[in-house]
Amino acid sequence: MHDWLNTPPGRYVQAWEQAQCDQALADVFGFHALQLGLPELDALRANRMPHRWLACDSLEGMQRQRPGVLLTESLALPFSDASLDLVVLPHTLELSRDPHATLREVERVLVPEGRVVVLGFNPTRLWGLRRRWREEAPEVGELIGHWRLRDWLQLLSFEVASNSLGCYRPVWQSQAWLQRLAWMDRAGPRWCPILGAVYCMVAIKRVRGMRLLEPAWKRPAARSARAVTTASKEME
């Protein structure tokens, strides 16, 4: 995966994913955010949370020094329950030996109403129509389609807020051909949206029975009690 990201199609995918993260995470507020895996992508650069970490199982692919780097596994995150406001999974589930357990671990560390962002390859991608796809694609585990991922998230009480697909150009190794086919990224969402090679899904952790408290200035002012007077008729 790390070597493939340095190829023309790898840089093409990485640019789309970076743009999606910048747009989706710029207005996500909180205190603690985590990117789990894929250090080549700076998924949290547009986010303004004061505490941001990058968790990896190795330093492979680390092209520059970045603050807040943790060496850990996705199946055992070094965070307490309900302690993170945001978790980004850039192809983390596809590279995990147990994607179900990884997703459960993310649910554990997220606060109620916390967000998870999942980036993954689409199994019904246009790239799959090429014979040499397996030779030119990155080495990942089982591909998890966005509809399948949506079911997994719902089982963990997540609510999908948005899902975007992109990268409609064929997986050519030539940078020149990728540039010539740029028109496909404009036509793809209109004519064949389900054939985007990569997806970016945002989901919110919901907790049943929980009621969020509104700010004090939003609460209706308590009505002051008024004295009620009754007129009595004199008895003759």
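[next item in queue]
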Amino acid sequence: MVIEYETKGRVAILTLNRPEARNAINGETAQRMEELLDEVESNDEVWVAILTANGPAFCAGADLKEIAAGRFDTLSTARGGFAGIVQRERTKPLIAAIHGSALAGGTEVALSCDLIVCAETTNFGLPEVKRSLVAAAGGLFRLPRAIGMAPALEVIMTGDPLPAQRAYELGMVNQVVAEDQVLEAAEALADRIIASAPIAVQYSRAVAIDAFAASDDELWQRTNQAFANIGETEDYEEGPKAFIEKRPAVWKGR
């Protein structure tokens, strides 16, 4: 299977599984990604997902064999775009757990996730200009939002790699850990998220991810609507009740 899937409690783990091709994206991988994200979104028992990979690299971007064969269009899906993920609309948090390199489309896949945990040895980068290409899967606008315009333009226009520690310092990465601790650290981060009310997390995420794209007026409106919507849930009553009773909240996700 090009992407493995398992669940651990409230956490779904999606694992890219083409190590012989450095987990480059082909048509089968893109289609499988879309199907698994559908599963994550529709499964009420899953509150957070993690995207990781088998082998020495997280993702090398597009599979050049597919491109050479004239099958470039198969690397995208109608709803997800490249790799079935970069344009995908989601409601649940997605953490990238990265060891090895995540270059070109691999960086763009990582940037489409909400949070990133990576190894000390990880390199990001958009080297397309070195081959007279354009990074076409969201990196040209997501990277400036993630790390700021000046450093992003340096990465984009030189095509040079962005080391893990530098990405962390610039705010693109949440945690940099030893290579053998990446998945463990991502799971620990997921556990911290699922300790909170899942619907409140989803509503809050939905407003926050558009913080740099929408106007303040729109964001105020959406914030107020989110607050009104959360007030209709069972978990809205459980939160204050658990606080008063000095006990952990028992979230139902409804």
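[queue empty]
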